[in-house]
């Protein structure tokens, strides 16, 4: 695939895609594959991932999270959550799908019907789920050779303790509470991840060889160029800081839930009060840009075990269980199909960095589970406070601040579920004691305080440029993903989500990208 570092200022592309992550690779590949093969430019801040072995082997995901491609964002101090989390994003072709564990769920019907109810017309299950047949992503069940025996024992304990279905294939039915090994976006024979870049590399390469695709890796978009409210392209910079304009008839932002709203605001599209305070001239007043931030906050329960965990795994985060119905507790949504309330991951080795930071002493052999709030009701925001694109992005997740205390209650329920699982065989037979939160932490208030002090993220920020109804003052996008108040500008990434999906969202992002390629007008 050809990567260039300069282009003539007079060249006009049919489509400019900014952000070569999970969604951006798909959008660029599909646009360039249209009949007539329009000219497409794809701008990615980081390098190509093809020759990076850590990005190819899904079992090495944790090396990518700590790699030179990882950018660690941090929130402002949290009043009710953990202020010490590294919110990792990846600057490399394929984006976060080069570093996540590719847990691959199709979105549940209840999630998508809620999108429609919240004003995202045309984004219900009958509109979006058919795109699953177009995905080039390899989604595999985990074969016995990659199934970890301890995880299998925890699954068996969860089915018994919580009265859950033992699930083999999650994607052959809509949501039912269950436990099992996940379906993963990978090739079991080689452990290669099926990232957005890998899955669509053939289409990208064909377009590049035809001369239809210009891939600009190592380039960063600094701001959009505009004539009045019409977007005409972007100012981009190479690794040495040299800047130039790239012009296009349509521009698609696919830079993710942090960088897409940042780029809009740096270009003068956003809340006028925020823009003026940052010293950015207002071009298009759009109050909702950066608002509506959501994430899956994840707790942790750790036990000492009688011996080490066995070796086999696909990614190390290969199993889990889904519990409850969050819609049933919400009168406005109780008539919709069910969605999980708690989504619990069962890792081969628990992610304990926050426990170590808090001074929790850990024994030699441990096991753990990570219950997360599947449908959080807390909402945060991202914003700029400077016109300098290198200034730190301001992020406030506002974890556990929903007025009814829903998120906190769900976190506590997840811990109580985990304790039930630990009392059930065959998992119970290998447990020595509970290490965290510890057997003396019993009340809801004490469990909440202990978990909120050390909770992690599942790295699923979304909703910062959400789709919404025409009369929704905080919606940034119309149902075609066009940025309101502008001409020639669309968004295709997780920032468009009206609400977070109750499960890992990578496949939903891919489906959104596939549909975006149909919605963006031909030129």
From TrEMBL:
Residues 256-270 form the Glucose-methanol-choline oxidoreductase N-terminal domain. One of its GO terms (molecular function) is flavin adenine dinucleotide binding. InterPro entries: FAD/NAD-bd_sf, GMC_OxRdtase, GMC_OxRdtase_N, GMC_OxRtase_C. It comes from the Bacteria. Belongs to the GMC oxidoreductase family. This is GMC family oxidoreductase. The lineage of its organism: Bacteria, Bacillati, Actinomycetota, Actinomycetes, Micrococcales.
